[in-house]
Amino acid sequence: QQRGRRSGLATRGSALAFGQYGLKALEAAWITNRQIEAARRAMTRYVKRGGKVWIRVFPDKPITSKPAETRMGKGKGAPEGWVAVVKPGRILYEMEGISETEAKEAMRLAAMKLPIATRFVTRTPTGVAR
Hints:
- The chain is an alpha+beta fold.
- The protein has one domain: CATH 3.90.1170.10.
- The protein contains two helices and seven strands, in the order ββαββββαβ.
- Strands 3-6-1-7 form a four-stranded antiparallel beta sheet, with helices on one face.
- Helix 1 (33-47) runs antiparallel to helix 2.
- The relative contact order is 0.33.
């Protein structure tokens, strides 16, 4: 698969669909499966058994790399890992069933595990995230 370009804003997945609170990406990046899982663990560990968490991004892009000290050529390298392509405005995680202060702290802990700037958003009575 080609590397591609990350230009523009997220058109899909930019509104809260499931939970009351969300974590929105403010920058474009590749987020690895390990980063997604580390953030999820940080979040669920903080809320213990309370609340429900939705992960809104999935790492479906394979990233390849060639072995160290290998000459150029001889084809594309072997798949090394998987990443999710994230554009600004994309909702990464959603949460419900806990208070706003708890959700804000859980999302802050999750955001520390991610390589991009994020913003905490809540569902308004009209259904639009702010």
